[in-house]
Structure formats: C-alpha cells, structure tokens
Amino acid sequence: MFRTALKSLLGHKFRLAITGIAIVLGVGFMAGTFVLTDTIIKTFDGLFDTVNEGVDGVVRQKAAFELSADGGGGGGGSQRDDVGLSVVDIVLEAGGVKNAEANVQGFAIVIGRNDKPVNSIDNGAPQFGSNWLDDGDISPYDLAPGGRSPKGPKEAVIDRGTAKKGKLKVGDPIRVQSRSPTLDLEIVGIASFGESDNFAGASFVLMETAQAAKFFASPGKATDILVIADEGVGQQQLVDSLRTVLPPGVEAITGEAYTEEQKDDIQQSLTIFNQVLSGFAFVSIIAGAFLIYNTFGIIVAQRTRELALLRAVGASRRQVRLSVLLEAVVTGLLASLVGLAAGVGLALLMKVALEAFGIDLPTSSVVVAPRTIIVSLVVGLAITVVSALFPAWRASRVPPIAAIRDVALERTSRPIIRIVIGIIITALAALNLRQGVDAADLVPVLVGIVLLFVAVVVLGPLLTPFIAGGLGAWLPRVRGMQGTLARQNAVRNPRRTASTASALILALALVTVLTIFFTSFQATINRAVEQGLRGDFEIASGSFGGSGGLSPDLAQQVQRLPEIDAAGGVRFGTAQVEGKGAVVFGMDGPQIDKLIDIGVVAGSLQDLTGPDTVAVDQDRASAAGWTLGTQVPFTFPTGRQVPLRIVALYENGGQIAQGLTDNWFLSLDAFAALEPAQAQTDIRVLVKKADGVTARQALVAVRKVTKSFPTAKVRNLEEIQEAQTRQINQVLSFFLVLLALTVVIGFFGIANTLALSVIERTRELGLLRAVGMNRPQMKSMVRWEAVLIALLGTFLGLLIGVIGGSALAAVATSDIPGHIVAIPWRILAIFCLAAAVFGVVAAILPARRAAKLDVLRAVTVE
Amino acid sequence: MTVTTPTATAVARAVDAAKYYGTGETAVAALDGVTVDFIGGQFTAIMGPSGSGKSTLMHCAAGLDTLTSGQVFIGDIDLSTLNDKKLTQLRRDRIGFVFQSYNLVPTLTALENITLPMSLAGRNPDQARLDEVVSAVGLSDRLRHRPSELSGGQQQRVAVARALVQQPDIIFADEPTGNLDSRASAEILDFMHSAVKTLGQTVVMVTHEPVVASYADRVLFLADGLIVDEMDEPTPEAVLDHLKRAGE
C-alpha cells in the first residue's frame, strides 16, 4: 500500500515540485529570518567580545530607572547619568587595578567638503563622538601607519570607513557637527577595528578624553570607566575591591557582565525585527497551506478511479487515508529541507545586501542554529500534513463502485450548513469590528479582520459563481467562445476556484489593510500638522533624539533675526513618572505657544517657563486626578527627583511628540537643569516669520544661520508633510515587500490549479481542438480563467482589506483630533490591474501545456 | 498507383497513405499504403478487426494524425502541407466530427455545443440551417440543457447536429453508436443516413458492428493496414458473412 503511494508520488515529479514550492518559499522565508538574525546577533556578540577584550571591570553611575522597550522612546534600557572624570583617579587608587580609562560616548557627524554629512544621517547607523583610548589593552582601535593619538582641542582620529567615503587623510582639516557648534579639527590619525572599516556601520570621531567630553557628551564626565585588573586578579575580585572606594551613586560591574548587557541590548532590539519577519513568514506559510490543501484535493479527485480500484481490491479506508498522508509527509519533508537550504541562501544574500549599504560586518560564517532546523522542518511538515488531512479523509470516502463508473462522483456538499456557519462568522466579524471602532480598541478590530477572512473562506465556494461569473460577465462579448469557456471553467468547480483564490485573498487583504492604515495615518498627520502649525518653517535635525540633534545655539540665533517673530526648539529625553519610564520633551513654552497648537484646554503654554513647570496630557491628568497646580514628582536619568508643577493641560501632544501618545512637556529651564548634557540638543526648531516679512525673505534669513549648522534642514509646511509622507511610505513599502512572497504564493496557487485542471480536462481540451479551437484560442481560454481567479481573489481580498483597513485606521488614529480614514482608490485599482496581469503570467505555463496537447491522444483516451 | 489527379466527385482522398510506428526491423505498420476516394454524398463505413488500421485511416484523413508517407486530401488540399493553425481551421470549417464518447463540452448548453465550431470561428450560425438540423434531430426542447442533463442518445444527437450544422465537406464518425443501446443507435444511424440522402452530406464512419455498417452505402474492409475488400449496398447479413469468410 505504502509502496503504491510512494510510487505514485515519484511518478508525478511535476506535481510534487509544484506542491512543494509553496512550502519551500514559506519555510525559506522563515529559515532565512532566523538565520539572518542569528548571524547578526553572533556578529555583534563577536564585536562586543573583541571591543571589550581586556576590560576586566566597568565603573559607572547607578541607573536612575529603567525605560521599558515599549515605552515608545525607541529602545529601552537603563537610564543613568554620566560618571565624573575625577572618578578615574579614585579607581586607579583601588587595589588590583592595573589601569583605568574614561570612555566618552556622544555624537559627532563629520561634514564633507560639500557641506553635507559624509555618512548619511538618515540610515540610522550611529555616528559616535568619542575619546581616544591610550591603553592598547583597552582600546579596540587600530591606528593606521602615519597616524598618532589626538591631543588638545583641535585634533581628531576618524574611522577608516569615514576617511574612505569622504576621501580624507591624515593632515586634512575636517568639520564636525556635534552637540556644540561646528568644530574645525585636524585629522591626526585614521583607525580601523581590526579588519573592519567601522563598527558595524557606526562611525567615530575620536578626541582627547577631556575634549571629547566637552564637545561631544557631558563636560567633565564620561559614559563609563573601563578598568584593567592586575595580573592574577579576577574580575569579581576587582569589582569587590572597586566597591570599597567608589563614591555613592557609582557602581562597578565585571567586564563579562558589561559585555553581556550590550549583547542583550542588541538581541532585544533584533527580537522585534525577528518577530515582524517571522510573522510575515507565517502568513506566507498559511497561504502555502491553501495551495497544498487545494493540490491534494485535486489530486484525490483525479485519482478517484485509482483509489476506488484500491478499495475494490481490498484496501481499507484507513490505508487509503494513510497513503495520501504519507504522500503529504514526504512532500512536506522534502520541501522543508529545500526551504531550509533556500533560507540559508536568502540570509547570505541579505548579508551581502547589508554590506552593500555600508554596514561592514566582520566576516563571520552564517549561523544555522539547531532551533532554525527544527522549527523549519516541524512547521513545514506540520502545515503540509494538516493541509492534506481533509483531502485524505475525502479520499477514504471514495466508494469502490467509483472504479467502474465513468465520471468522478459529484460530492454532495451541504450548502445550508456552510451558509449558516458562514453567516454566523460574518456576524461575529461585524460585531467585533463594530465594537472595536466604537471603543477605539485595537484587539476586537484585529479579531474582526481575521474572522472576516475566515467567513470569506467558508462562504467562498458559494460566492464564487456569482462573483467570478459577474466579474467575467463581459468576457464572452469581448473574447467570444474562449471567453465564454474561460468564464464557465472558472465557476464550474466553485470549491476549487475559491480555495485557489484564498491565498490571494489573504495576501491582498493584508496588503490593503496595511495600505489603508498607513495612508489614513499619513492623511491624518498631514492634516493635523496643517491645522496645528502656527509657524512657517521647521528646522529639522534629521534625527529623533539620540545622536544628531541640533545645537541649542541655532534656535537662539534664529530667534534673534529681525525677520523672525518666534523660534522654539524641542528637546527629547527620558524621565520616570508614576513609577514608569516615559518620554519627555523640553521646550520654550512662550515661543512654542506661538508656533504650534497642541490643543491646550487649561492653563497656558505661556506659563511653561522657569525651573519647575510641566504641561500634561489632559486624559492622563484626569486619570491621575491632577489639575493645574498639582505637583508631580519626576525622576531623571541624572538621579535627581524633582516635583514639577502642572501649568497647562493639552489634548493633542502628538503634534510635537510626532505621534508618540505618551508624552510630557517640560519647560526649557527644567529640561536643561534636570536632563543630562547629551540630551541638550533640539530635535526640531519651529520658526514663525515676523509680520510684514515675506516667506521668502524669512527663509533667506534663516538659511544664512543654518549655513553653519550643516545637518539642519529647513522645511516649510509642504515639505514637512512630504517628509512625513515619505517616512510613512518607507514603512509601508517595507511591509509590502515582506508580503510580496505571500502574493507570489497566491499566484503559484493559480498556476498550480490550472496546470492540474488542464491535465484533468485533457479530453475536453482535445475535443475543443478537434472541432476547431486553435492554439492561440486555447491559450486565451486558460489565460482568462486565470485572470478571473486572480480578480476573484483580488476582489474579495480588497473587500476584506477595505473594511478591515478602515476600521483599523479609524481606531489607530482615534486620539488625533480630526482623524480621517483615507481609502486610496487609485492604488486599489492598480492592485486589480496588477492582479490581472499577474494572472496572465501565472497562466503562461498551464496555457502552453494546454496548447501543446496531443489532440489525437486526448480524443482517443479511454 | 496510377490515379493521382483529383477526381471531381471525391471529397476526401488518401493516396498511398502509410503510417508506421517505430523504425527499421521493428517498425509496425498501422497503415501500409492505402489509396481510397471518399465520394461526395456517400455514406462510407470502414470495418476491420482491432489493429487493422481503420481508426488510423480515419484520424489521418481527418487531420488529427499525420502520415509517415503518402498524402491525404480534403478537396484538393494536401493536409501534409498545412501547419497546425491551417489544419485547425480546416477541421473547424470543413470537417465534422462525431466521437464514440465525450463529444460535448460539459460547461456548454446543447445549443452552444452545436454552434461551437462557428463560435470559435467568430461566425454566426445560419439560423435557417440551425433550425432545420435541430428539429431534424428532435432537440428543440433540449437546447438549453447541459450535457449532464441529457441521455447518451441525446448527447450523440447533439454531436451529430454539431457536425451537420456547418455543412462540412465531410463528417468523420468514430464508432458513434459504441456506447448506445440499440434504439438510440438506430435513431442516430437513421439520422446520419437521411442527412446523406436528403442533404447530400458525405459521411465516413468507423465501426465494428455489421448492423451499423449496413446503414452505409459502401463498406471498406481493412486488415493489417490495407484495404482488403469493399462492398456496395451492404446488408447486415452480407457484412457478417464477409467477416466470417475473412476470419476463416
């Protein structure tokens, strides 16, 4: 029995390949994700090991509080102040210490000869301003011949990557944009990291420690102090000894623990990346499941007589069932193995792509963890077998009598049950969507979208004749007889057509949901900016906090211009409030009040001045029972705990916080006094021209100032909207690229079904050829059937997507006043057109096969 | 063979038609050099045992199969000179087919099946001719039905109607009654017979049943790829008698 199954499988290599391809693609995507993230993690692990090699202990300020990763500030982690440089001397006095050096980390952007940053500030790789480490045992830098270590306020060493890119060499002057106004320095050395030009994409400008602290980070302070132990002193021993001498608020940890922390940080940030990719891989695997289900269904239908014969000669139902499942197991296993290999290939490709983007990862081999292998094989196998369960059950129901009947038995389906179940699920979906939209709750909306998809899958076979028939109603008139036949063929087996379209429905539904979601988000934000902005320009730093902010000097200089009425910068930092890490913004209240409308409902931004004031979101305030004048205690990364007095309540902080709903606005004085020195840069400066000055005159005046701030970009309202649109489109494109594979699987499904249908309809096609259908007509017939299935899938996918996407967009933007749901009909029309074109592409091989049919054999087949 | 010029009355001809499977020593002859004229307005039956080449002859004459050597003509067109497109067009416009089974496209109605060749050509059927043929085969009230809703005899009548409606030069029928009971068979054969007599159709039919062959004007007997005998105005008894003698 099983030998029969295996022989049947090997006898149909084409079928095996086409079934397996869906699994190969899905598993390949998943395995590729795992391999890529594992490889990146290993690479960084290796990097940190190398960089921290020789470091036995680290001394730093104790953490003030933890910022959770989902706090919205972009990455979490411990928030701590810098440690005084004077602590180095204390450390050097401690027992067991051989040497210690301060480690300063701020930001520094090298400006090229064309007045533009040498390394793009948009791609996210950090640009560090740091200090040169004298001790070769501590320093990860390797100085190239001809260079020397930097001394004094004018000398710097830069990384080899930046030197290459900017065509810079020792002796050249460079300009560096940092926290302070632009610095004019001289290159005295070029450094590499072992073999690598830079630190995994991050660039470096290195100065003498005190200078680096002054220009790049906090004057007189260091991020941490790196310590080397005396010969024979263990790391823990060193830490114990350090603890006895350190001042309060300062801690010591072992080098190993320090390295481990850094590794964990990377791993954590990659976990989200991994989860997003895995999620999309899973979607493509689900699409693959539809393809497998369909293929096995068709195979069983085609083998009805063979199966009946087996039953007639004595095979039990169980044996028939198992033989189909065995075929699924072998297919799933083979395809998963190929998929695994494909995934490794994919990861290699991605690594090359990353390197092409200037992220110079040290050469390390690709990591294929046992977890990757196990998960790939298990998921691939399980999906295949589960998808084949129902077809196998159906195979076992084939009665022996079918062996002697001429035609395959029409399966008795129970439309009533299907209708009832379908309607119940549709109702549940509607209920969930309704509830979600009303309560502005994301979870019921997502549940509703999933249920809607399930409802469409359940009702699909019943809807197909109407929808596909309706979509193809014009075909007979335009394409004559082959149009009529294509339309009939598309609806002759509604269950098959519907399940073929399911993968495409899934893909198109997700594509549409995401497109509508992001388009609405973008439209809402653009409208909010339009309504909220009272100023005329924004000077953007091209970075959101962290490295690359604008020097506070810029806002001050612009403010002094006679052409300008108001200019105010916004700073970005963290604090702990109500026991939770949060994102806080610092701003000049009276200036900002003239520049942007954040929907103040009580108090005034005019009062957001002085050393102890804060403006709070109205909802948050009422939830906590706060009113104007309430003193709210804050803890800052510097460790200081200060109560701030509420002077204004607002309802639309997202205007300033760029969509972050969890936001607090501190007066500039409070922010400057309480946040660390590195946070004292403006992420954006808003500008309003004076009365009687044209926009052009104001722009010219502002440009004169920004000239000496090379990272500053001046944008008017339109340009702000454009920049936001571009940013959102980038995210959307990223998701759409990840969905591309699912779409491809959907079209593979169409090609697969058609290929099998062509085989099944051999005699019918032969008859058509005999009575006068020529090859182009036959190809056209197959092609239009494919187009109809593609349009069916697209139509239903768009239906789900428009409903689900609108609901999702409505909920996600609900706390932005004046939010709108924007449905990009033009883009949706393009999807339909593209689906039709891809349908034609999917039909190429099946159509060729149909056209090449041997007429004589087809009509004489018995 | 001396006769190589087209005969005015021959609608289809095979000249020295040969078809071999395999090559050299092991070559098997399905047709071993057959020359035959199918005269216009005549009902010809081809008989012979399995493997005699009767089906091959018909398939080659109908442009469904190709010869190893020799020629077949429909009118004065040499089929071996035609590419697939021309050959398909010829089948569509000038030849009618009736197969033993699976004659109809299951997704089309009876009427759509009847007019299929014309629809494929992008032509409208001649309504008068269509009415005539449909009423002659007695399908007027069945035209909107799909094949699965028709009996085997009705299906074959639809197939015959399809073959007739476009007034082809010649109709090839391959065991057209093979799957029918005797009453349905008689109906189909009567109908084909009358089409020849009253409409002047030319019909060539392959069969192995003497009773069926007796409806023809002429019977060709094939054996081992050669025409071994022929009989005009056959009766079932005469054919059976002939077969018996051949079998001895």
Descriptive account of the structure:
The complex is a heterodimer of chains A (862) and B (248). With 862 residues, chain A is of the alpha+beta class. Chain A is built from 26 helices and 25 strands. In chain A, the strands form five sheets. Chain A has a six-stranded mixed barrel. In chain A, α2 (13-51) packs antiparallel against α21. With 248 residues, chain B is an alpha/beta fold. Chain B contains nine helices and ten strands. Chain B has helices at residues 54-61, 84-94, 110-114, 116-121, 127-136, 152-165, 182-199, 210-213, 236-247; strands spanning 10-21, 28-39, 43-47, 69-74, 77-78, 95-98, 170-174, 203-206, 218-223, 226-232. In chain B, the strands form two sheets. Chain B has a six-stranded mixed beta sheet, sandwiched between helices. A four-stranded antiparallel beta sheet of chain B has the order 2-1-4-5, with helices on one face. In chain B, α5 packs antiparallel against α6 (152-165) and α6 (152-165) packs parallel to α7 (182-199). The longest helix of chain B is centred in the last third of the chain and has 18 residues, at 182-199. Chain B is globular, with a radius of gyration of 18 Å. The chains are: A alpha+beta (862), B alpha/beta (248). Chain A binds chain B through residues 480-482, 484-485, 488-489, 492, 763-764, 767-775, 777, 855-856, 859-860, and chain B through 55, 59, 64-65, 84-85, 88-89, 91-93, 97, 99, 102-108, 112, 116-117, 119-122, 162.
